[in-house]
């Protein structure tokens, strides 16, 4: 049997994935069902599934870590062998691995392999993908982020502190001219970064081209004055050809960033934009709740962000401390740390991405965010925390600078506020 | 205020979506939070959110249908106003609508709008998208399926009965030559349709080009003999440029179908392939469990399939009766009926898609599938149900013809089997 045709170099390495499962089957049987379904198996033994093929292409169960019995089934409709009522479900962590020859270095095939039909198998009353680990061949197959932390600092001229950003609000309804007027206010206030809302794409009341041109004119005017060009993450999420045209416009017009709503555009679209793009790519995770909101189905952010990093995203949203959503603070910080953890350990290209904190953020959470992350390599987006500051937007931005300075110096914000009135006002207003 | 710039025609209509929610907030407050988050609102009142803007661009709560109190919260981490412990959650159906001016006819923007951050809002301990209804302007913006039922029948020459198909198994590990040998067996057995497994893309042990060429040579050889070219859904799911090259090859080589793993490729990629494709697009839903497995988060297949139909998919997988997964039979049939329900009621183009039954299917479920669907416009994929038939693959295919003939004539399969030995053997083996 000739498995490796001429012209294609042999790939080496294994793809690894870890899952949380809940099942009433014996753990070994359940894990074998996962491995079979996602590699060479089917629901009945078939002639072509030879021992040689199984050995080479069958997914391997690397480990099963029994987490013990649970009271009832988390999700309905699972089945059990024999007398179902007599068996109580158990939870476990299961590690699977695949020969990279199964899927080659096609990212969509990896997605199908580690997610695929697993969530629907009747053996399971809970199934979450906890982690995925790509072998080094993927670092050659996909470019990864082009800018990430260092490139974003270079494009914005911001060093020694986090980038301070905001989202254009109201999310929808502003005309291009109104958006530009708001951008003028925001840039005058001292922001480093502004972005479209994920709901703002290319609608008739704010066509992308007109909005982008209007905002860039404002950005350029300020850059002429200050020597610093703020970064505008313009939301290009849409059909491939439209996104390409918009990316071309951004580049031609001297923009430095484009935003992609990852779940709306999808993996292949994001890869395509990365290969076409000369600017930083800002990844918004709207719809993330679909994968994260249930503790019993879905995937971890640790696994999720690796796909988008490999696809070439530079900034990844991670929510924020004390956010307006459901996510606990520890989960937010784990996501941010994941973004800053190298994937391949390569020195020749960016190997981390920049986490973006957003959602109900103000100077109140700034110090803790900084302290818990242990670095200033992040983008910190505030809406009301800037616009609703009692002293106005410029005071709002100043309150964030104060908060980060205090954090960098190891001084409690409350103490630092005694000599920094903007911080003091923010802590009063938002605390 | 000039909302509609020159050159862009005004769009009319509203996008509607229905949700199942669970909340401890007063229903009106909870529904308003959904509407605000997904349109012009933010977490604090802001200056630009004028009454005029709200009226025009704010999402509208169309209805709230209270479903009553439930015992406990389905999902963790939601919050309640005031004394949380004293408030029990209630469930409701909520209808929202948006002015189509909010997002224009950009499908990715619709995805962000009807899904977006909703699942993460702290008000909710359950949130599912039940349905979405696109205004007619989308039928002009997106081509929809090019082949669907009628085109698939034309390409395969199958009329008056369902198409009988199978999936190449083992899913991974076969070389192109081995795949072609298996295809020869399958086509000789009388199948109308064969497809790659969703795990088989463009790996080094079975490069797409070589596999496709090898299988097409077999298909052509049989077509020369029988005058009928079977349809091969070759899995092109991958990066955009690779998918385009593969589509070009399929067209050049006389293929009639390409398969896309919808969740792996993503919405923008699928739209792009539709615009580039001259062949039928077969939509696989691997990963669907991420959206469907929990009754408390995700979306219905009714909503899901509308996005992919609009994007241009011709065949949509719907699982099968008595399947190997967790899905109840009623859910399977509801999905299949959804595929065959017109979206826009237009006569000038296909307005339905062809449902594909798959997963543990044999002659045993064939009659009920036919009977409950009320039409023969579907693809029926069997693996073991054909290959593991005691009389061999050709007898397996014959057993399915028998089962569908019996169903069409209103004769119970058991009775029909008395004079049809292949059906009899299938009912014995798989019943």
Automatic annotation (TrEMBL), chains A, B:
Residues 106-136 form the Ribulose bisphosphate carboxylase large subunit ferrodoxin-like N-terminal domain. It holds the Pfam family RuBisCO_large_N. Its cofactor is Mg(2+). Gene3D superfamilies: Ribulose bisphosphate carboxylase, large subunit, C-terminal domain, RuBisCO large subunit, N-terminal domain. One of its GO terms (biological process) is carbon fixation. One of its GO terms (molecular function) is ribulose-bisphosphate carboxylase activity. Residues 150-430 form the Ribulose bisphosphate carboxylase large subunit C-terminal domain. Keywords: Magnesium, Metal-binding. Belongs to the RuBisCO large chain family. This is Ribulose 1,5-bisphosphate carboxylase, large subunit.
């Amino acid at each position: 049997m000739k498995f490796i045709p001429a012209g294609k170099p042999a790939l080496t390495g294994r793809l690894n994935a870890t899952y949380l499962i809940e099942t009433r089957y014996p753990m070994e049987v359940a894990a074998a069902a996962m491995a079979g379904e996602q590699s060479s198996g089917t629901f009945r033994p078939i002639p072509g599934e030879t021992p040689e093929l199984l050995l080479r292409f069958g997914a391997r169960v690397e480990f099963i870590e029994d987490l013990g019995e649970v009271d009832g089934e988390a999700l309905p409709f699972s089945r059990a062998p024999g007398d179902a009522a007599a068996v109580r479900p158990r939870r476990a962590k299961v590690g699977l691995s695949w020969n990279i020859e199964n899927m080659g270095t096609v990212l969509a095939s990896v997605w199908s392999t580690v997610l695929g039909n697993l969530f629907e198998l009747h053996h399971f009353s809970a199934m979450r993908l906890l982690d995925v680990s790509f072998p080094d061949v993927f670092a050659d197959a996909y470019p990864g982020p082009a800018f990430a932390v260092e490139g974003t600092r270079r494009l914005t001229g911001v060093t020694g502190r986090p980038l301070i950003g905001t989202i254009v609000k109201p999310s929808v309804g502003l005309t291009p001219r109104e958006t530009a007027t708001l951008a003028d206010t925001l840039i005058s206030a001292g922001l480093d970064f502004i972005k479209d809302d994920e709901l703002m794409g290319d609608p008739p009341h704010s066509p992308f081209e007109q909005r982008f041109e209007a905002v860039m004119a404002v950005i350029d005017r300020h850059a002429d004055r200050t020597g610093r060009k703020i970064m505008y993450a313009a939301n290009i999420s849409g059909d491939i050809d439209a996104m390409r045209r918009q990316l071309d416009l951004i580049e031609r017009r001297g923009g430095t960033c484009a935003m992609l709503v990852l779940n709306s555009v999808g993996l292949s679209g994001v890869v395509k934009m990365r290969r076409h793009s000369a600017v930083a790519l800002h990844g918004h995770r709207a719809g993330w709740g679909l994968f994260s909101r249930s503790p019993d189905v879905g995937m971890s952010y640790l696994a999720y962000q690796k796909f988008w990093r490999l696809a070439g995203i530079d900034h990844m949203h991670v929510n924020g401390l004390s956010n307006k959503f459901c996510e606990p603070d520890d989960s937010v910080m784990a996501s941010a740390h994941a973004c800053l953890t190298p994937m391949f350990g390569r020195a020749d290209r960016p190997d981390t991405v920049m986490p973006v904190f957003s959602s109900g953020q103000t100077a109140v959470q700034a110090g803790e965010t900084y302290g818990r992350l242990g670095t200033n390599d992040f983008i910190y987006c505030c809406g009301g925390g800037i616009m609703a500051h009692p002293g106005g937007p410029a005071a709002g931005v100043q309150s964030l600078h104060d908060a980060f300075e205090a954090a960098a110096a190891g001084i409690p914000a409350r103490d630092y506020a005694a000599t920094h009135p903007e911080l003091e006002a923010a802590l009063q207003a938002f605390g």
